[in-house]
Every structure is written in structure tokens, then in C-alpha cells.
């Protein structure tokens, strides 16, 4: 279990220190600072063991969050907690920065008291927390005894993430499918590794205690239905129509509100949603990924002092869609002494501080291609070391899900109140972003 | 140094550095650096040439980036270009970059060396200094190779500026420290020594560091510096504080120089010249007098400088150890410091007094401070000071104050720091033994010691007390009584139990008369500790029990009961179980006579050096306890217990070769395949065969446990071993390979190679018969004290079997420690057809094998020849020629000798001269040889001169047989 939690600024000064167990002493704070934050060599492992004490850290901009324990804990649990903690703090006061943490430090201690008990994670649902931990001062007479007991029963009850009696004039529902696509490709265009990690994020403003049901084109479900009905040929026709019709999900995790038993038995996702924003599920796919862009590099070394680079990018999706925020990063050798760039589209610039040529294109439609060529002058050096040729990386944003995931339905039932599925206004959005999208050159 | 003009401030550099300092994170810093590197690359790449200023600026930035921990792989060329600039700042930055980032890149090194050469040759003193600093900072072997010849010239040249001389001296010192073989002073020696007379104090200070270092290596060559140093010292000491102006530091004239001079003098024995000596004594007296004067300033720097000189002077006095008057004065001075406020001074005083205590002249004077030192031991706050105090007490201890000091140390031990306890324990043990007049006092002390600091009492200490008790009849009874009393304490240390078990087992009968310590009471007391002890102690106690059965038959039943119980006879520890089984059987089967013989009292141990002392020496390193040599101490103690294996076989009790000294000393042999029970039954068998009247001598250790050696010893052949066969030494003086020995059976070939002071010798043993040699062994021994001159170790023992017609190879590693005249002996034994052959040969190892040839010109040769003109350094022989006097033959022989044959040196072309250096680990001995043949008279005159008389003599003898 977590013995303590520390938050440091970039200098290693302690902003927040909360110790839950006696086996964690004050010197643990310094041990982490000395061995990780101020380490001579950058520490890349998120878990560090110092004197039989384990430190799990995540870094958000310049802020370090470190969970400390002396026991053999589930590391995945600790990281899940740390990320959740980040989410909670973001939900309360926005960006996690030194200033924000200093301004909200009473709040953070309050939160830490609530979401960790003797080192065991408790309720970390922002919606629920916000009902009794607020940023503004609360006058005690404001809460009646009844309300207080309600909070208690809600927090300790079966549906801890939603309180009763919520009422909206407009029942609205927002659903975002956010995916990040990761790729490593050989210079010849062979896919070496690719996967998509996606999230389904919802924002719900619904009255009462509604029961929701979410459906997507999960292969298992589709296959089951295909077998159940006689839609064998129907499936075929669909295949011909819009590419592929179902996707294979490698693994997925759900928000605590989803009834897992139902998912296990029927593969259906049904839940009573929390109020406000939350992440319904997370998933990962590795098969049949639509790669939105293809990068074709061409690097030629002309003697010892010159390098010619030509990079072509091709967009590989429907021409009606527009990709945005495209950025191609072409690494340059460490002994670069000058760069000339010519590109047809967008803007390209040699950034010496990052040892790379950065090429930015604002928008690009599908099934197009664009090209950049650069001449790099090199300074002869004493070192006989060859340039390692790091891969060319890319960033972009596309308005579809590269995994091929489609939302089939999202149904809302609220038997007690008089609104039906049709009255709920639903919004669905797909955003595909690049994760680590690299092509070797 | 030219003033740095305002324009040279390098704003760009300052901006860059402040940018880096302001970076919030490591990533930001790396970004900034990458940007700067790209900028510098583009600038260096640029087609238009950079001016000196920007070059300097960029090289500076690169240097800064490198110092931040980033790799720099360009810009070296630009830095080298800066070296040829005429501006001081540019040159300086260039040199800085080179000294920090130099790598052995061949082409650049050549350019750099060239630039340095130019600067050294320039008449500009600043440039020369920069170049010298660069050489010293790099200090690599390549640098030494390139400039070792040049720098001495600059150092002694008349027109060199003082500041350059200073740099040159220090640079040379640095090169000498890295590669002493390349820096040869040779002809410069005397002129370097005369730098001590230089007008400029800075030059003298720099030169003296160099001279000190050089004279530590070859004291003889720099002997002349003593008188110069003394006169310089006396001038400084007698000068008024205002005379030396710049070199007066807080009213003390030239303190650093004085300290260095005093240190230099410590490399040499007291000067022989009376006048010089008188002057030196006067100086030392003045220094001691000055210490008594009231301080001229209250500043700490003043007293520090003064005391530094004083302590250095005291070290010199101690080093000379010949002036009783000065020694006593020094001691008194130190005595004052013992109560000084400054902790550092007290520490230094204690430390110096330790060495003073060992001098016969000042020992008494040191002793007068005993109270202060004891007080220091008790009250000092700093543990290192207390440690020194303890050292001093140990050093000043003699018979008169031993009791007091030991008592104080014992009482201090109770509160002593853990870090020094073990050492204190050893010291107390040694002092108690060394100065024991009354052995009951000794026993008391050691038992007290074990009681107070049992954990820190090492094995050696309690071995020793037992040795002494066993060897001295008069204390045995007292020891038994004291031990018995000590054991009554409810919690006593395991070491105490060991001593108690041993002594009561041996001498329990001496106190058994008293009903308070009747045998049964003794046994119960011992046995009450049994279960709290570790296995070795329990084993010892079991042996004590069986001794009890012998001493007190009335305890037999009780003890047998104990031995018989499951926790003993079925103990999971093999050793304990075996003892229990064997002792039980022994006590039940053997008759009282047998028991009495087997379990007789331990015979006295042979006299040996105390093993505790050896341990203390090992702990502190050689030298640290030189004071404590037991020279005049008594050696009543006797031999060390754990080495007592060589007692005669008539000793009825089984001997104790194992280090776990115990009563019966059953060898704790590793359990053989048969389990302990098997061993037990074997024992029973032995007894049942031998019967109760088994001769005591048969019950030896090996017979007890194993019968693997039961085969009767092979009859030795009665051939008298042949004495050492002298090798025909003259045959191998000039060659390294050949046949060393040959008879009808065996041929020994030899092949050897030497390098510096190391050598390797391959011995080939050829079996000339068709029958195999068995039990073939060869050992190399160094008779007498040869051991300390040469090390000769076989890499591995030879194969014991040599087939007929086969050849066996053995490799000897040889290391020459210092010069030697005798040769190691090779002893070969083997059995040929049942007859034992024994052969002893002298190895053809002569001092000339370690020659390193030295080439030199005629002038050099004769200068050195003259330097070695003392009568004992020369050895000469005139002898008749035994062999051909052909010139070429002689040449070949002289070359084989290992020296360099110098052509065109001697004015007479018939004569031969050679030069070489004998490389030994301890020192290098330069040798010069001159051979003058007289064809008409068929005679030679051979003259050898070397810096060491024994070497000249030995070489002369060796060579005379050659021609």
C-alpha cells in the first residue's frame, strides 16, 4: 500500500508531503530528490528503489508526483492512482503547475485525505468528490443534517459516483472517441509495429438515475449477432460498402460504473453514468489499423560534408476528410553546420536547439501528397562515429478513429422520470491523434 | 601579464552562460546548448575566416559546454590555431582548451607540440610560461618525450626570467612524477642544485620541490644540496621579518620555503661537515627559540605559519635522532602544545611525541608528560586525538610505568569508541605481556580485558594468555582461581568461557581442594555456559569435560551422562557429535592409565614471537608500530598456540594443528563420505583391535580419524644427498640459454629472459633414461637473507611423473628486489628405479641479468665516471687472459653482459667502455665499466664503478672469470 505521497517542483523542493504510514520517514523525501530529480544521469524508469523503499513517480510538466512505499505493492495500481490523482487535480484547478499547487495546497491535502485512507485508494471520482470538497469556503449551516447524511450514504452506498435528484432541463450527452495511433515503419515501408490506444470519454448531463447502454462495432458482438440473425450476406455487403465493419479489441478497461458482470456474460456495456465528464472506457487494438499518413524518406550522403534529404508524406484516408496540425520532424546529424530547405506546402525550419528540421502543415485533405527536400551541410569532426540516423517522427490530428471503431448506439433509459431515449440530445465525435508515429530513414 | 582590455570581455560568452544558468530544466539547457553548438558549427564552417576574437569566444563556449558534461568533437583545430596567435588572451584560451580536451590524436598532437616548441623558443616570458603550464597540465608521456630534454635547459639558462624558471621547475617536477625514466637530469644536476642560491625566493621555492623529489630517488647525486639548503635556511631563519618583503607571511619570513628546506634535509643523514652541522643546529635552535617568543600577531595565520616551521623542524630533529639537547627541547615544546587550545596542535603534538618516544634520548622526557596524555585520553572530544593519545601512551610505555598505563587504558576501554577498541585491546594485551613482571597481574589484566571488551578480543589474545599460563607453572593455580571467579558472573563473554574451559580443563585440579570450587562445582559452572556458546566453543568445552574425567574420576558419571544425552551424541554438528561419541567411548573403554597418558597436561609451547604483535602490525601497516618492537621486551611467553604443530611425537596428547586451539585438538577434518557415526565405529574398531593397552603413541590424530595414510612409508634410499652442485657460473654470465646440468639420468636446460627488474626462467627437465621418474619435485630456495634481495617463485609445481625420454618444463618468475651476490638454489628430488635422487644446483642468476643498457656520449661518460670516484665505488682487477683476446669475441661477451658498449668514448681504441643501469625494485644502480686489454702481456685491467660498492665488487668478480 502507498506509504506516502510527495509532490515536488522542478528544483526538487517539496510542495506537498503526505505520509500515510509510519515506515516512511522524512528522509524518504530527500532520497527521492537526490537520487531521481537531481540524479546525474536522467532517471528513465518510473519506479526507483532506494534503500528498500520504492518510489513511483509521474511527471506533469515541471511537477513531480511520487508515491512511496516500503511494501511490495501492485505497481500498476499505484500508477493508476497517480494518474487519477492528476485527473482529479486538473478537474479542480486546471493545469498542474507549481503556482496552482501552491495556491490550492489546502485543497490538495483535503483531497489526499479523502482519496487515500491509510494508503489504500478510496473514492477518486471527481463528480462525487466535488459534492463535499469544494474550493470555496462552506458555511456549516448551509448543509442541513439531512444533506450531510445523504452525502454519507451516497459516498458509502452502492452507486458512489452519482448522487440522486439531479435534474436538467435539457438532457444532453457528449461522446468522444479519442485515439492515438503509434507506428514504427521501416524505410522500405514495412510496418514494424503499430497499435492504437483509444479512450471513450463522455460528458453526460442527464436527470435522475438513468441506465445507459453503449454499443460499438466490437467483433465479438457483431459476430454473435451475425450468427444469431441470418445476416451473413448482409455483413458481406456492408464489408464492401464502408471498408470494414467490425474491429478486434485486444484489451479494454472500464469506468467503475460499468457493470462488468453484464459485459462478461453478454458483452454489452451498460451503466449508470456519473454526472459530468468521465472516461467510460480505454482500449487497445493492433489489427487492421488505418494508418492516416505514410512517410517516404530518402537520405543521401554526399561526401563527408553534405547530406541530401527528401521526404514525401502521403495522406491515406477519404478525400473529404481534413487532417490538421501536421508536423514532420526530420532529425539532423549532430555536426550540422547549415541547412537549406525547400517545401511546396506548409512551413519548414531547421531548429538547431532540437537538432531537427520541423515541417508544419496546417491542413491536408485525404489522398494527397506533399514533399520536402533539404540540403544539410556538415562539419568534419574528429569522431569516426557514424550518425545513428534516428527515425523521422510525425504529429497530426484526423477526424476519424484509426482503429476503425464505430459507435453503434448509446441508449438511455430512465423509467422513473418521463423522458425517453429520443429526448436525449446526443453528440458523437471521433478524433485520431498521433502517438509515437515514426518512420526509419 | 597584459591587462585584459575591456573589449576582451566576450559579451557573447557571458550572455550564453547566463542563459544556461537561467534554464529552468535540464531539457531547456540541452536545447540551449544544441542551439549554440549549431551556431558555432556554422561559424566554423563559414567560408570567411574568423578573426582571433571570435575564434577565442567560440572556443571558450565550447570549453564551457564541455565542462558542463557534453561531448565536444570539433573545434580542436580552431583551438590549435589560437596557439599561434600573438595576443595573450587568445593564446591562453587556446592552451586552456588543449589542456582540458587533449586527446592522443596524432596529427593534432604534432601541431600542438610544434606550437609549444615555438613558444618555448620565443623570448617572451609570458608565452614561455603558458607553454610550460600546458605541458605540466597535460603531463602525459608524449609530452615528456617531446620536452623532457628542453625544459632543464630553460631551467638553468642564465637569461631565463625568474617567473619562467619557477614554471620550468614545477613543470619538470610534474613530468618527473609521471615518467621518471624520461627526465634525466644528468649534466644539469649541479646547476639545478645551485638554484637554491638563486636571488629570487620564488625560484628557490619552486626548485626545492623539484630537488626534494629528485633527491628522494637518487640521494647521492644531489648530496651537495644539503650544505646549500642549510645556508639558505640559516639566512631565512636569522633574517628579520621585514627583510624578505613579499615572502614574509604574517611576520613569519618565508614559511613555505623554510618548511620545504627542512623537508629536503629530512632526505639526508645529518651533515658530516662540522661547520654545516653547527649552522644547522643553530638554525634549529633558533626555530625552537622563536616558538617561545610571544606572538607578533594574534591572527591565526601567524601562528599557523610559525607552527608549521616548528613541526617540520621537530621532524628533522627526530629524523636525525642524534642531538639529545635538541630532542629534549623539542619534547618540551611539544609538551606545551599538549595543553594548547587548538585541537589540531594537540593532535600534531601527540603524533610527533609518538616518534620522539622511540628515541633513546628523549624517551625519558616524553615520559614526564604521562599525566597530560592520560588526561587527553579521557577528556579529548575528538576521537582522532584520543587515538593519538592512546598511541603515545603505548609508545611511551616501559617497565616503570606499564602498570599505570595499562590500568588507564583498561579503564578507558570501557568508554572507548568502537572504532579504536580492537586496536586498544591488542595494545593492552601486548603491553601487559611485554612488561609483565608478575604473571598474576598479567592474567588479571587479560581477563579484565576480556570482561570489558570481549567482542574486540581477537583469537590471538586469548591464545596468548593460554600459552603463557601453560608455559609458566607459577601462575597456573592463580589463573585457575581467577578464571573460576570470573566465570561466576551471570553473563560472561564467550572468549572468557573459552579461556575458562581451557584453563580449568588443564589446571582445575589446582583449585579443587577448596570445597567452593570442587570438581563438580567447576563442571556445573562450565556446563551452565555450554548452551549459550557457539560450536567451536562447545567443542572446546567437550574437550575440557574429558579432561575433567581424567583429573577428577568422581565426575565421570555426571560427565558421561552429559555426553550421552541426545543433544550431544546426536548433535547435528558433525564435529560436536564426533567428539561426544569419541570421548564417551574413550572414557568408558580406556583404562585410567591410558586416559592419564592420552589426556596428559599440555606440554609447554615452543617460544615464538607474539602473534598479537604481528596482528597489530598488520592492522596498522608497517612503520606505524615500529616503536613497539619487542626488542628489549621479555619473551617469556612462548610460542603461538596455533602454530604448535611441530611438537614431538612423544607428546601424548594429540597435537593441535588446527587453528581452533582446543584441548585435544581433534582435527576438525571435513566429514568424509562416511557420516559421523561411521567415524565413530571406526574409532571403536581401532580400540577393539588395539585393546585397552594400546600404545599411546598409536593414538595419534590421523589414526583416530582416517586410515588413508596407513600405507607404510616408502623406504628412503640411503644415498647421501649430494651437496649443491655449483654451476659453472662463468658460462651463464654472458648468455641466457644453455644446458645447466647433465648426468646419465637427467639433463636440465635453461632459457631465460629479463626485463628491467623482472625475469622469467624456463627450466627443462629431460629424462634421459627409458624408465620413468616418480615423485619428481623441484623446489627453489634462497639461502640466508637472499630472500630479501630476490624473489624466485615457480608458477606451478612440476608434474610428479616424468616418463622415460620425456621432457618437463617449469617456469620461474623472478623479481630482483635489490642487488645480490649469491644465487638461489634449485633442489630436485625424484625416484629413479627405487633409488632416491637428490640434486641441488645453483641457479645461474647474476646481478648483471638486470642490466639496462645506457647509451651516452664521451663527455657524459667521463663526467659520470668522475662523479663515481669514491674509493668504495670502484672495483678493479688486473688479471691474466684465460681466453682468446680477439676483439670481436670480447665485444660479443661484453654485449652479452647486458650493458651498452660505447664506441668512440675511450681515447684508446683498444679499450672498451660500457654503461648500464642495474634495475632492482628498490633502486637503480648506475654502472660504468672499462676494460683495458694488454695484448703483449696477455693481461687485462678491468675497472668497474657504480653508485653501490657491493655491485661494483660483485660485477668485477663475475667478469674477471670471463676473459
TrEMBL record, chain B:
Membrane topology term: Peripheral membrane protein
Gene Ontology terms: biological process: clathrin-dependent endocytosis; intracellular protein transport
Organism ancestry: Eukaryota, Metazoa, Chordata, Craniata, Vertebrata
Record family assignment: Belongs to the adaptor complexes large subunit family.
Residues binding a 1,2-diacyl-sn-glycero-3-phospho-(1D-myo-inositol-3,4,5-trisphosphate), per UniProt: 11-12, 43, 53, 57-61
Protein's name according to its UniProt entry: AP-2 complex subunit alpha
Cellular compartment(s): Cell membrane; Membrane, Coated pit
Superkingdom of origin organism: Eukaryota
Record-annotated Clathrin adaptor alpha/beta/gamma-adaptin appendage Ig-like subdomain domain positions: 730-844
Amino acid at each position: 500500500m502507498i506509504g506516502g505521497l510527495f509532490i515536488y517542483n522542478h528544483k526538487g523542493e517539496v510542495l506537498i508531503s503526505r505520509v500515510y504510514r509510519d515506515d516512511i520517514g522524512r528522509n524518504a523525501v530527500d532520497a527521492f530528490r537526490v537520487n531521481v530529480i537531481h540524479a546525474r544521469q536522467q532517471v528513465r524508469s518510473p519506479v526507483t528503489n532506494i534503500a528498500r523503499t520504492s518510489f513511483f513517480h509521474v511527471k506533469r510538466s515541471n511537477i513531480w508526483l511520487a508515491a512511496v512505499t516500503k511494501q511490495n505493492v501492485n505497481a500498476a495500481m499505484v500508477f493508476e492512482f497517480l494518474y487519477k490523482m492528476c485527473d482529479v487535480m486538473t478537474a479542480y484547478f486546471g493545469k498542474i503547475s507549481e503556482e496552482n499547487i501552491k495556491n490550492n495546497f489546502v485543497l490538495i491535502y483535503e483531497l489526499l485525505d479523502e482519496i487515500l485512507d491509510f494508503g489504500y485508494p478510496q473514492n477518486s471520482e471527481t463528480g462525487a468528490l466535488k459534492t463535499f470538497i469544494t474550493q470555496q469556503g462552506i458555511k456549516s449551516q448551509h448543509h442541513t443534517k439531512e444533506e450531510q447524511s445523504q452525502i454519507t450514504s451516497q459516498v458509502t452506498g452502492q452507486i458512489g459516483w452519482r448522487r440522486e435528484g439531479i435534474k436538467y432541463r435539457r438532457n444532453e450527452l457528449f461522446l468522444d472517441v479519442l485515439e492515438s495511433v503509434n507506428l514504427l515503419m521501416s524505410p522500405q515501408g514495412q510496418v514494424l509495429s503499430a497499435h492504437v490506444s483509444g479512450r471513450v470519454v463522455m460528458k453526460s448531463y442527464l436527470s435522475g438515475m438513468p441506465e445507459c447502454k453503449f454499443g460499438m462495432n466490437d467483433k465479438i458482438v457483431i459476430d454473435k449477432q451475425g450468427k444469431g440473425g441470418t445476416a451473413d450476406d448482409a455483413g458481406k455487403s456492408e464489408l464492401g460498402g464502408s471498408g470494414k465493419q467490425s474491429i478486434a479489441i485486444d484489451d479494454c478497461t472500464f469506468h467503475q460504473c460499468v457493470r462488468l458482470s453484464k459485459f462478461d456474460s453478454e458483452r454489452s456495456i451498460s451503466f449508470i453514468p456519473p454526472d459530468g465528464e468521465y472516461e467510460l472506457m480505454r482500449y487497445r487494438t493492433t489489427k487492421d489499423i488505418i494508418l492516416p499518413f505514410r512517410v517516404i524518406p530518402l537520405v543521401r550522403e554526399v561526401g563527408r560534408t553534405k547530406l541530401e534529404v527528401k521526404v514525401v508524406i502521403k495522406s491515406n484516408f477519404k478525400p473529404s476528410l481534413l487532417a490538421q496540425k501536421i508536423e514532420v520532424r526530420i532529425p539532423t546529424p549532430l555536426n550540422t553546420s547549415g541547412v537549406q530547405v525547400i517545401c511546396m506546402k506548409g512551413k519548414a525550419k531547421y531548429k538547431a536547439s532540437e537538432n531537427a528540421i520541423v515541417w508544419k502543415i496546417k491542413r491536408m485533405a485525404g489522398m494527397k501528397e506533399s514533399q520536402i527536400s533539404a540540403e544539410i551541410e556538415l562539419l568534419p569532426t574528429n569522431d569516426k562515429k557514424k550518425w545513428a540516423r534516428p527515425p523521422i517522427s510525425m504529429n497530426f490530428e484526423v477526424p476519424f478513429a484509426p482503429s476503425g471503431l464505430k459507435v453503434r448506439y448509446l441508449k438511455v433509459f430512465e423509467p422513473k422520470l418521463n423522458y425517453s431515449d429520443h429526448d436525449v440530445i446526443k453528440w458523437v465525435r471521433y478524433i485520431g491523434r498521433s502517438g509515437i508515429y515514426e518512420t526509419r530513414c | 601579464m597584459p591587462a585584459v582590455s575591456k573589449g576582451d570581455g566576450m559579451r557573447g560568452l557571458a550572455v550564453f552562460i547566463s542563459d544556461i544558468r537561467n534554464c529552468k530544466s535540464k531539457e531547456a539547457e540541452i536545447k540551449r546548448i544544441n542551439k549554440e553548438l549549431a551556431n558555432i558549427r556554422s561559424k566554423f564552417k563559414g567560408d570567411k575566416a574568423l578573426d582571433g576574437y571570435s575564434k577565442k569566444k567560440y572556443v571558450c563556449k565550447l570549453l564551457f559546454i564541455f565542462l558542463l558534461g557534453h561531448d565536444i568533437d570539433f573545434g580542436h583545430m580552431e583551438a590549435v590555431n589560437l596557439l599561434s596567435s600573438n595576443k595573450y588572451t587568445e593564446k591562453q584560451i587556446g592552451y586552456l582548451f588543449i589542456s582540458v580536451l587533449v586527446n592522443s590524436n596524432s596529427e593534432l598532437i604534432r601541431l600542438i607540440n610544434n606550437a609549444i616548441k615555438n613558444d618555448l623558443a620565443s623570448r617572451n616570458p609570458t608565452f614561455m610560461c603558458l607553454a610550460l603550464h600546458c605541458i605540466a597540465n597535460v603531463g602525459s608521456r608524449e609530452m615528456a618525450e617531446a620536452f623532457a630534454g628542453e625544459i632543464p635547459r630553460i631551467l638553468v639558462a642564465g637569461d631565463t626570467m625568474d617567473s619562467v624558471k619557477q614554471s620550468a621547475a614545477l613543470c619538470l617536477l610534474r613530468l618527473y612524477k609521471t615518467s621518471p625514466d624520461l627526465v634525466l637530469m644528468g649534466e644539469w644536476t649541479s646547476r639545478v642544485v645551485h638554484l637554491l642560491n638563486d636571488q629570487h625566493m620564488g625560484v628557490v621555492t619552486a626548485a626545492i620541490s623539484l630537488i626534494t623529489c629528485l633527491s628522494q630517488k637518487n640521494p647521492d647525486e644531489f648530496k651537495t644540496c644539503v650544505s646549500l639548503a642549510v645556508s639558505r635556511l640559516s639566512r631565512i631563519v636569522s633574517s628579520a621579518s621585514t627583510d624578505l618583503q613579499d615572502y614574509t607571511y604574517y611576520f613569519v619570513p618565508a614559511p613555505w620555503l623554510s618548511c620545504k628546506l627542512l623537508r629536503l634535509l629530512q632526505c639526508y643523514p645529518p651533515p658530516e661537515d662540522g661547520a654545516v652541522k653547527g649552522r644547522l643546529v643553530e638554525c634549529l635552535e633558533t626555530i625552537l627559540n622563536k616558538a617561545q617568543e610571544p606572538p607578533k600577531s594574534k591572527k591565526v595565520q601567524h601562528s599557523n605559519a610559525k607552527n608549521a616551521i616548528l613541526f617540520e623542524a621537530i621532524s628533522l630533529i627526530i629524523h636525525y635522532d642524534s642531538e639529545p639537547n635538541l630532542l629534549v627541547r623539542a619534547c618540551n615544546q611539544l609538551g606545551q602544545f599538549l595543553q594548547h587550545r587548538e585541537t589540531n596542535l594537540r593532535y600534531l603534538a601527540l603524533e610527533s611525541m609518538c616518534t620522539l618516544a622511540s628515541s633513546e634520548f628523549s624517551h625519558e622526557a616524553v615520559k614526564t608528560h604521562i599525566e597530560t596524555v592520560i588526561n587527553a585520553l579521557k577528556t579529548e572530544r575528538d576521537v582522532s586525538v584520543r587515538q593519538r593519545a592512546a598511541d603515545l601512551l603505548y609508545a611511551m610505555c616501559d617497565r616503570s610505568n606499564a602498570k599505570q598505563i595499562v590500568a588507564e587504558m583498561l579503564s578507558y576501554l570501557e568508554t572507548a569508541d568502537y572504532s579504536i577498541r580492537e586496536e586498544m585491546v591488542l595494545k593492552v594485551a601486548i603491553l601487559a605481556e611485554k612488561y609483565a613482571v608478575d604473571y598474576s597481574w598479567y592474567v588479571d589484566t587479560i581477563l579484565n580485558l576480556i570482561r570489558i571488551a570481549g567482542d574486540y578480543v581477537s583469537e590471538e589474545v586469548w591464545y596468548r594468555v593460554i600459552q603463557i599460563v601453560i608455559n609458566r607453572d607459577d601462575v597456573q593455580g592463580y589463573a585457575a582461581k581467577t578464571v573460576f571467579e570470573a566465570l561466576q558472573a551471570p553473563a560472561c563473554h564467550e572468549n572468557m568461557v573459552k579461556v575458562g574451559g581451557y584453563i580449568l580443563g588443564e589446571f582445575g585440579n589446582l583449585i579443587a581442594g577448596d570445597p567452593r570450587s570442587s570438581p563438580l562445582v567447576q563442571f556445573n559452572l562450565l556446563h551452565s555456559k555450554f548452551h549459550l556458546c557457539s560450536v567451536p566453543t562447545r567443542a572446546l568445552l567437550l574437550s575440557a569435560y574429558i579432561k575433567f574425567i581424567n583429573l577428577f574420576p568422581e565426575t565421570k558419571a555426571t560427565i558421561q551422562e552429559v555426553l550421552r544425552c541426545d543433544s550431544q551424541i546426536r548433535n547435528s554438528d558433525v564435529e560436536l557429535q564426533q567428539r561426544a561419541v569419541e570421548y564417551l567411548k574413550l572414557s568408558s573403554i580406556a583404562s585410567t592409565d591410558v586416559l592419564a597418558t592420552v589426556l596428559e597436561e599440555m606440554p609447554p609451547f615452543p617460544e615464538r614471537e607474539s602473534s598479537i604483535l604481528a596482528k597489530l602490525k598488520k592492522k596498522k601497516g608497517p612503520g606505524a608500530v615500529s616503536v613497539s618492537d619487542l626488542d628489549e621486551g621479555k619473551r617469556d611467553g612462548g610460542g603461538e598456540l596455533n602454530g604448535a604443530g611441530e611438537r614431538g611425537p612423544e607428546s601424548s596428547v594429540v597435537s593441535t594443528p588446527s587453528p581452533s586451539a582446543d584441548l585435544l585438538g581433534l582435527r576438525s577434518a571435513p566429514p568424509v563420505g562416511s557420516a559421523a557415526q561411521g567415524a565413530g565405529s571406526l574409532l571403536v574398531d581401532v580400540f577393539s583391535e588395539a585393546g585397552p593397552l594400546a600404545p599411546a603413541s598409536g593414538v595419534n590424530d590421523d589414526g583416530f580419524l582416517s586410515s588413508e595414510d596407513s600405507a607404510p612409508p616408502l623406504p628412503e634410499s640411503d644415498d647421501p644427498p649430494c651437496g649443491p652442485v655449483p654451476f659453472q657460473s662463468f658460462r651463464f654470465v654472458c648468455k641466457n640459454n644453455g644446458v645447466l646440468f647433465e648426468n646419465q639420468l637427467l639433463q636440465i636446460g635453461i632459457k631465460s629472459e629479463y626485463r628491467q627488474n623482472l625475469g622469467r626462467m624456463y627450466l627443462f627437465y629431460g629424462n634421459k633414461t627409458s624408465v620413468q621418474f616418480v615423485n619428481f619435485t623441484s623446489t627453489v630456495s634462497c639461502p640466508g637473507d637472499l630472500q630479501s634481495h630476490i624473489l624466485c617463485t615457480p608458477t606451478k609445481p612440476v608434474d610428479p611423473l616424468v616418463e622415460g625420454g620425456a621432457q618437463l618444463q617449469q617456469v620461474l618468475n623472478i623479481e630482483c628486489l635489490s642487488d645480490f651476490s649469491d644465487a638461489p638454489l634449485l633442489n630436485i628430488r625424484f625416484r629413479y628405479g627405487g633409488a632416491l635422487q637428490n640434486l641441488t644446483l645453483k641457479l645461474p642468476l647474476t646481478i648483471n641479468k638486470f642490466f639496462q643498457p645506457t647509451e651516452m656520449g664521451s663527455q657524459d661518460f667521463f663526467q659520470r665516471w668522475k662523479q663515481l670516484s669514491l674509493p668504495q665505488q670502484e672495483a678493479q682487477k688486473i688479471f691474466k687472459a684465460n681466453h682468446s683476446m680477439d676483439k670481436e669475441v670480447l665485444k660479443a661477451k661484453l654485449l652479452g653482459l647486458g650493458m651498452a658498449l660505447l664506441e668512440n668514448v675511450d681515447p684508446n681504441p683498444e679499450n672498451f667502455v660500457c654503461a648500464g643501469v642495474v634495475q632492482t625494485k628498490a633502486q637503480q644502480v648506475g654502472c660504468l665499466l672499462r676494460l683495458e686489454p694488454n695484448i703483449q702481456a696477455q693481461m687485462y685491467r678491468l675497472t668497474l664503478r657504480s653508485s653501490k660498492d657491493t655491485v661494483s665488487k660483485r660485477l668485477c668478480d663475475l667478469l674477471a672469470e670471463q676473459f
